[in-house]
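Title: Comparing notes on inverse folding

I've been comparing how different people in this forum approach sequence design from structure. To keep things fair, I'm posting one structure and asking everyone to reply with a full sequence. Here's the target:
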């Protein structure tokens, strides 16, 4: 049985769902949670439901907004006198920045963006995609503990019957230490919806969308499905969509339950960002488009005809 700390981030009143996925997978281990700042009652209840033992809210000066050094110093100070074997976090934008820095301060091993893991006793074995998802590496961590792990959102899924933990809340005073690089402003992405990396359903558009206005039909479908809208690089480079919507090797890596690719050819660089989606649907006029080799369901046809029909059908089914 391992002693584990899970670092969590909040989104409004809730914790990010990847935290709950990680907690679910860690059932049977001693698991604490830490966050910077306070947690709502809803977030606390969710963490307890999914197995959190102690829930530590770290507080201190200069921690009201994210800074890589401040958060890293605060967490280092908190973790240093504890006996955690592992520190986990979801592979979010913030954690991708924070966790390697934090692992570095401990001179510790790190497995980033694992899509699955298991323990033998308290030894971690993880699986992570390499070379744009073309192969899966088995990762073990050696050397002094704690070891650090980030987990790709939506990869593990939520457990059907989570094992509850005590969920004991504690406020912990920490120091942000010296901060030399200050983040002045965080500009929100184009979509107010769930970030692509955490979305359970994604509707993406490619070059075939032809212009920004035409993305409206994808947003309409996304609204019905509770999905987030993504884009290929061709669509982004052509100015049809914001860069924050780009999926792929030089965009975001996503792992939704459902990925609907509309007018996207399926170039290797695009597949690199979405090939671990559970179900892939492709709509394309070209029956030989490479995306169909990865799609679970393919529709050969004009997206401008197909998408509105699907939206209507989804509406009937879901309302
Ligand atoms: C270093 C590098 C990094 C890259 N990173 C990324 C990345 O992160 N993400 C990414 O996406 N790309 C990336 N690319 C670009 C990638 O190689 C492709 O050029 C890009 O993915 C193509 O986008 P697309 O599929 O939208 O466009 P296209 O390849 O032009 O495909 C458009 C598709 O739409 C279909 N179509 C046309 N009209 C319709 C219609 N009316 N209805 C339905 N289907 C229609 C066509 O048959 C075609 O298959 C990268 C490239 C390089 C070199």
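Reply #1:
Here's my take.
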């Amino acid at each position: 049985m391992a002693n584990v700390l899970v670092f969590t981030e909040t989104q409004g009143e809730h914790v990010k769902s990847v935290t709950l996925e990680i907690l679910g997978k860690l059932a049977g281990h001693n698991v604490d949670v830490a966050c910077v700042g306070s947690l709502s009652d809803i977030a606390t209840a969710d963490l307890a439901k999914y197995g959190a033992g102690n829930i530590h809210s770290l507080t201190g000066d200069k921690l009201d907004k994210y800074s890589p050094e401040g958060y890293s110093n605060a967490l280092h100070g908190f973790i240093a006198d504890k006996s955690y074997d592992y520190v986990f976090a979801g592979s979010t934008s913030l954690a991708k920045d924070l966790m390697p820095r934090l692992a570095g301060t401990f001179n510790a091993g790190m497995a980033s963006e694992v899509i699955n893991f298991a323990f033998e006793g308290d030894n971690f074995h993880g699986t992570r995609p390499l070379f744009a998802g073309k192969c899966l590496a088995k990762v073990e961590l050696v050397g002094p503990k704690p070891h650090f792990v980030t987990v790709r959102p939506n990869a593990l899924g939520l457990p059907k019957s989570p094992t509850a933990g005590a969920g004991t809340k504690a406020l912990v005073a920490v120091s942000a230490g010296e901060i030399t690089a200050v983040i002045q402003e965080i500009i929100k992405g184009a979509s107010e919806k769930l970030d692509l990396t955490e979305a359970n359903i994604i509707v993406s558009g490619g070059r075939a969308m032809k212009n920004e206005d035409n993305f409206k039909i994808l947003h309409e479908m996304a609204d019905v499905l509770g999905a987030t809208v993504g884009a290929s690089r061709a669509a982004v480079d052509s100015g049809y969509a914001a860069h924050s919507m780009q999926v792929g090797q030089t965009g975001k890596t996503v792992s939704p339950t459902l990925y609907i690719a509309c007018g996207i050819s399926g170039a290797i660089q695009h597949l690199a960002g979405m090939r671990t989606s559970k179900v892939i649907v492709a709509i394309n006029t070209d029956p030989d488009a490479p995306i169909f080799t990865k799609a679970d369901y393919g529709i050969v046809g004009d997206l401008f005809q197909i998408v509105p029909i699907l939206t209507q059908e989804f509406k009937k089914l879901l309302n």
